[in-house]
Design a protein that fits this description.
Blueprint lengths: L7 E2 L2 E10 L2 E8 L4 E7 L8 H16 L8 E7 L2 E7 L3 E3 H5 L6 H20 L12 E4 L4 E3 L39 H4 L6 H17 L9 H10 L14 H10 L11 H9 L16 E2 L10 E2 L22 E2 L12 E4 L5 E8 L6 E7 L5 E5 L7 E6 L1 E5 L4 E6 L14 E6 L6 E5 L1 E6 L6 E6 L4 E4 L5 E5 L2 E7 L5 E7 L7 E7 L4 E8 L1 E7 L5 E6 L6 E5 L7 E6 L3 E7 L5 E15 L7 E2 L6 E6 L5 E6 L9 E6 L4 E6 L1 E5 L5 E6 L4 E6 L6 E2 L5 E9 L5 E8 L5 E6 L6 E2 L18 E5 L5 E5 L6 E2 L7 E6 L5 E6 L5 E7 L5 E7 L7 E9 L6 E16 L3
Length: about 850
C-alpha cells in the first residue's frame, strides 16, 4: 500500500513518496518533535509474509544501526505501524553515483575523494564485522551538500534479472552461506562469483570496480549476460594502462589494480589501508602529472577572512585557484589555491613504534631531534633520533621536552609518569638538564609551557594559577593573563615578541594565533580556529602553526606579522598534523596522528561494556539515572565547526538535538543544557517536543562547566567575565542574569551538586576539595579527600561521593564516605589497548555506581621532517 500524506507513523508525519524499490517504499517525512525532515522506509504489506524479505529488511536496520560513520546512511529510529515495519534515516538530497556516471567519467580528483569516503565508511563497517556484499554505483550516493554516503548496508537485494542488461542476478538470503551467489554481476568479487564464503576483502574488490568505472566511464567487467560477466571477473584483468586510460596518474592506476586482484590475499588487506593510499595522493598544478607525492601543498592565497571550499587530497593537476566543487567539498576551511609547478615537499619519517609523541625539538646541530613519547603504553620518556637512522636512542629520562636552548640545555616537565596526555599539566615541575647528560635541576612548579629566549638565558613560561592562566617573560614578569588557556608559547629571534595560542575555554583547543610584544600588547594573527595546536617562528619571521577550521584534521598554515596579517596553507595530509619545531633552514618537524575514539558504556545489569561512539569524536556529557540514555557531544569532523549535541538510547540510534557543547540532562531528561560557542552562551535543548531556548548571558564572557540544580529550576555553572577569573554562578531558568556565588579560583567537574541542592563539591584555589554552600557560607573540607581528587557525582542519599584522580590509566573510581572519610575503590577502568591512549575520561556514573560511561582516545603518532615548504 502507498502511504497517504499526513499519515502519522509515531512522531513521523508522511509528506510524500520518494521512491519504490524491491525492498521497500521510501517516503519523505517530518519528525514532529524536532522539526527535522527524514526518510522513512516501509516494507510493503504484501511482503510481510515473505520471511526472506522481512529478514533482509530487519537485517538492514540492524547493520546500519551498528555502524556510525559520516559516510554511511545514518539510522535514526525503527518502529512498526499496524504491523508493518519501518526504519527512519537521514533524508538525502542528490543523486546516486550510477545516475552521475550516465554523463561520463568523473574528474580524477573527485574519484579520489569519493574513494577515500567510501573506504573509510567500509572500514567502520568492517570493524563491526559487517560486510556489504552488494557495493555498486547504485549504492553510493552523492549529496548536494558535498557528502558521500553508502546505502543499503548489509542488504543484498532480491532483484530479478534485468532483461537485456545482464547486470543483475538473483541473490540468496544467507549472509555468508558457502555456495550462494550474493551480489550484483559486474561488481562481485571472484570469491562471490564462485559462491564461496566472503570477508571484508570482497568489498575492497567491489570498490575497485566502482573506482575503475568512475575513472573511465565504463564498467570494469561487462558482457551481454550475467554469466558471461561473471566469467570475465574470474579471467580478465581490466586495463588501466596509460595507453588505455590517459590522464590517470600511474600511482592511482596501481591502487585500483591492487583492489582488483583475483586472490583476496593479494589485495589491500583492509579498507583503512586503501583509504591511506588514496589519501596519500596530492594535488599539483602542471601541464601533466609526472609524480604524485604523499602531501597536499598550497601556495600563498587569500586570508582566512574569505572562506572557500577547501582543496583536498587528489591525484590530478589543477589550475591554480580552482577548489574542489560542491559535489565533494566536506567543510569550510581557510582559502587556499593550488601551487605552481614546483618540486613538492619531501617527508622523512623518524619514528616507527606504536604510541603517542608528546613533544619534539631540533637540537642545536639542527639535525638531531629530541622528542618525548609514550611507546606501547609505557610512561612518557625522552629519546633522540637522527635522519637516516630508523632507531631512536633513549636519553634515560622520564618527562616531556618543552624547548631546547642554543647551548643544548633542555627545559623539561617532570612528573609525566602517566600514559596519557594532560593538557592542563597540573602538578608538574619545570626542570632544566643538559642534553649531554646529568641530573635535572628543578626550577619552578605549576608550569604548563616554557620557551627559551634566543640567548638561552631566560624562559617564557605559562603558569596555572587556579582561576587564571598567566604568560610570563621572563619568568615572574606577567605579560598576559586570561581566564581561558594559553599554549605553545615561542619567543621570537630578536627576543622582543612572544607568539602563542590563545584559547577561550580551558581544555578546549579552539582558539586564535596571537602575538605579544614586551609591553604586553596582544595582536591576533589568525583567529577563529576550531582546533589549533603547535606553533613556531620561521627564519623569515613568519609564524607557522597547525590548525583546522572545522573538526580535528589539522593542516600546517603560515601567518605573516604584517599590520594586516594574512594566512596561507602550507601542507595538508589525512589525519592530524602538529607542528613541533622549525629549523633555521626552513625544515619543519611535525607529528602526524591517527585517532580512534570510543565511548564505552556499561548498562546496569550487563556483564560487558559496549562502544556506543556515534561519529568520529563522541564525548560523553551525561547518563540518565537508569543508565539507559546518553547525552554526548560530537567534537570532531562529523560534529561541525560549533560541535553537535546528541541524545541516544543504549539500544537505539542517536538523535541530534542541535549545535553546541552538551553538559547535562535536566532532572526529568526532558531537556539538555548546552553551551553554544559564538552564540548566547547557555542554550536549553529539548530532547523531545519543543524549541531550543537561550538563557541571558549577562556579563559572562566564557562558560567552562555547568549543571542543573536537582529541582531543575536553575543552573550552576563555572564562568568568567571579561576581566575576571573563573568563578561559580547560579542562574534561574525563569528569569534574570547570572549571579556569582563563589570567589574566583574555584573549579569543579562532573555532577558535583548534592542531591538536596544545597551544596556543591569544588576545588578551592589552594587545590583542596571542599563542600561549598550554594546560598552562601563558609566552605567545609571534605574528610578523606586528597589534592588531585575530582568529583564525579554524589550517591542518591548524599552520604557518599564518587571521585577519581585526573585521567590516569587505569582510571580508578573511588567511593568516599562523607561521614567517616573512608575511601574504597569502586571500579578500575582501562582501555582495551594501552598503546597511544591519550586520555581516559571523563566518566559518568549512575547514582548507585552500577552503570557508567566514559571516553578513551587512542592516538598513534609518527614524527617527520618536512623539506621544501614555501
Amino acid at each position: 500500500m502507498e502511504l497517504s500524506p499526513g499519515l502519522k507513523l509515531g512522531p513521523y508525519e508522511v509528506l510524500s513518496l520518494v521512491g519504490m524499490g524491491g525492498m521497500g517504499e521510501v517516503y519523505r517525512a517530518k519528525d514532529t518533535r524536532i522539526g527535522r525532515f527524514v526518510a522513512v522506509k516501509v516494507l510493503p504489506s504484501r511482503f510481510i509474509a515473505d520471511e526472506s524479505r522481512l529478514r533482509r529488511f530487519e537485517q538492514e536496520a540492524r547493520a546500519v544501526g551498528m555502524v556510525n560513520h559520516p559516510s554511511i546512511l545514518a539510522l535514526y529510529d525503527v518502529g512498526t505501524h499496524e504491523g508493518i515495519p519501518y526504519v527512519v534515516s537521514e533524508l538525502l538530497e542528490g543523486q546516486t553515483l550510477a545516475e552521475r556516471l550516465v554523463t561520463g567519467a568523473l574528474p580524477v580528483r573527485q574519484v579520489v575523494e569519493l574513494g577515500i569516503a567510501v573506504a573509510h565508511g567500509l572500514a567502520a563497517a568492517h570493524e563491526k564485522g559487517i560486510v556489504h556484499r552488494d557495493l555498486k554505483p547504485e549504492n553510493v550516493f552523492l549529496t548536494t551538500d558535498g557528502r558521500v554516503k553508502i546505502l543499503d548496508f548489509g542488504l543484498a537485494k532480491l532483484e530479478q534479472p534485468v532483461s537485456g542488461d545482464g547486470s543483475h542476478v538473483p541473490t540468496r538470503s544467507g549472509l555468508t552461506d558457502a555456495g550462494s551467489v550474493v551480489g550484483t554481476a559486474g561488481y562481485m568479487s571472484p570469491e562471490q562469483v564462485r559462491g564461496r564464503v566472503v570477508d571484508h576483502r570482497s568489498d575492497i574488490f567491489s570498490l575497485g570496480t566502482i573506482l575503475f568505472e568512475a575513472l573511465t566511464g565504463r564498467r570494469a567487467f561487462h558482457a551481454e549476460s550475467a554469466v558471461e560477466t561473471m566469467g570475465l571477473i574470474l579471467t580478465q584483468e581490466p586495463p588501466l594502462s596509460p595507453e588505455v586510460a590517459p590522464g590517470i596518474p600511474p600511482v592511482l592506476s596501481r591502487i585500483v589494480t591492487h583492489c582488483l586482484e583475483k586472490s583476496p590475499d593479494e589485495r589491500f588487506q583492509s579498507a583503512k589501508d586503501l583509504a591511506f593510499q588514496l589519501e596519500a595522493l596530492s594535488t599539483f598544478s602542471a601541464p601533466a602529472v609526472s609524480h604524485v607525492s604523499n602531501v597536499s601543498v598550497a601556495a600563498p592565497a587569500a586570508t582566512r577572512s574569505v572562506p572557500k571550499a577547501a582543496i583536498v587530497a587528489a591525484g590530478v593537476a589543477l589550475l591554480a585557484g580552482i577548489g574542489l566543487g560542491a559535489a565533494l567539498a566536506r567543510s569550510r576551511a581557510p582559502a587556499i589555491t593550488a601551487p605552481a609547478a614546483t618540486e613538492p615537499p619531501s617527508l622523512e619519517r623518524l619514528t616507527f613504534r606504536r604510541g603517542i609523541i608528546r613533544s619534539a625539538r631540533f637540537a642545536p646541530d639542527h639535525q638531531t631531534v629530541v622528542y618525548a613519547a609514550s611507546w606501547e603504553g609505557e610512561p612518557v620518556r625522552l629519546f633522540s633520533a637522527h635522519p637516516g637512522t630508523p632507531e631512536s636512542r633513549s636519553l634515560g629520562l622520564d618527562g616531556e621536552i618543552l624547548d631546547l636552548s642554543p647551548q643544548g640545555e633542555m627545559a623539561i616537565l617532570l612528573g609525566i609518569g602517566e600514559k596519557r596526555y594532560t593538557p592542563q599539566r597540573r602538578n608538574r615541575v619545570l626542570a632544566r638538564v643538559a642534553l649531554g647528560g646529568g641530573a635535572p635541576r628543578e626550577m619552578m612548579k605549576d608550569v604548563l609551557w616554557a620557551s627559551w629566549s634566543p640567548d638561552g638565558k631566560s624562559l617564557a613560561v605559562v603558569r596555572d594559577t587556579g582561576g587564571k592562566t598567566r604568560l610570563e617573560y621572563p619568568a615572574g614578569t606577567v605579560r598576559y593573563e586570561t581566564a581561558g588557556w594559553v599554549t605553545y608559547p615561542r619567543v621570537s629571534a630578536d627576543g622582543e615578541s612572544i607568539a602563542f595560542l590563545d584559547h577561550p575555554v580551558r581544555g578546549d583547543d579552539r582558539g586564535d594565533v596571537a602575538i605579544l610584544d614586551k609591553a604586553g600588547r596582544k595582536r591576533v594573527l589568525s583567529p577563529g580556529w576550531s582546533s589549533v595546536k603547535g606553533l613556531a617562528f620561521t627564519p623569515n619571521g613568519e609564524v607557522w602553526f597547525t590548525a583546522s577550521a572545522a573538526g580535528m584534521s589539522r593542516a600546517l598554515h603560515a601567518a605573516t606579522l604584517a599590520e594586516k596579517p594574512a594566512t596561507r596553507t602550507l601542507l595538508r595530509m589525512a589525519g592530524q598534523l602538529l607542528l613541533q619545531d622549525v629549523a633555521p633552514d626552513g625544515r619543519a618537524l611535525l607529528t602526524h596522528d591517527s585517532y580512534q575514539g570510543s565511548l564505552d558504556v556499561l548498562v546496569p545489569g550487563a556483564e560487558r561494556e559496549m562502544d556506543l561512539a556515534w561519529l568520529d569524536s563522541s564525548g560523553i556529557n551525561d547518563l540518565s539515572p537508569d543508565g539507559q540514555t546518553l547525552l554526548f557531544t560530537e567534537q570532531g569532523d562529523g560534529g561541525g565547526p560549533r560541535y553537535s549535541v546528541y541524545v541516544r538510547k543504549v539500544d537505539g540510534p542517536a538523535i541530534r538535538l542541535g549545535e553546541g557543547q552538551g553538559l547535562a540532562f535536566s532532572p526529568d531528561q526532558s531537556s539538555a543544557l548546552a553551551i553554544l560557542y559564538g552564540g548566547p552562551g547557555f542554550v536549553i535543548l529539548p530532547t523531545g517536543v519543543g524549541e531550543p531556548r537561550a538563557l541571558p548571558r549577562g556579563p559572562i564572557r566564557e562558560i567552562h562547566w555547568g549543571d542543573f540544580t536537582p529541582d531543575g529550576a536553575s543552573v550552576i555553572f563555572l564562568g568568567s567575565e571579561a576581566k575576571g577569573g573563573a568563578r561559580l554562578y547560579t542562574q534561574s531558568l525563569s528569569a534574570g542574569d547570572p549571579r556569582p556565588i563563589a570567589p574566583e579560583g574555584v573549579t569543579t567537574t562532573g555532577h558535583p551538586i548534592t542531591p538536596d541542592g544545597k551544596q556543591i563539591a569544588v576545588r578551592s584555589a589552594g587545590g583542596a576539595l571542599v563542600l561549598m554552600p550554594i546560598e552562601g557560607g563558609e566552605p567545609k573540607p571534605i574528610p578523606g579527600a586528597e589534592p588531585g581528587d575530582l568529583p564525579i557525582r554524589f550517591t542518591a542519599d548524599g552520604r557518599s561521593l564518587f571521585l577519581c584522580r585526573g585521567n590516569d590509566v587505569p582510571l580508578v573510581i573511588q567511593k568516599l564516605d562523607l561521614t567517616t572519610g573512608r575511601k574504597e575503590v569502586w571500579r578500575s577502568l582501562a582501555p582495551r589497548t594501552a598503546a597511544g591512549v591519550q586520555t581516559l575520561g571523563p566518566v559518568r556514573l549512575t547514582a548507585d555506581g552500577k552503570g557508567y560511561a566514559y571516553n578513551s582516545a587512542q592516538f598513534l603518532s609518527s614524527l617527520y621532517i618536512v623539506k621544501g615548504l614555501k
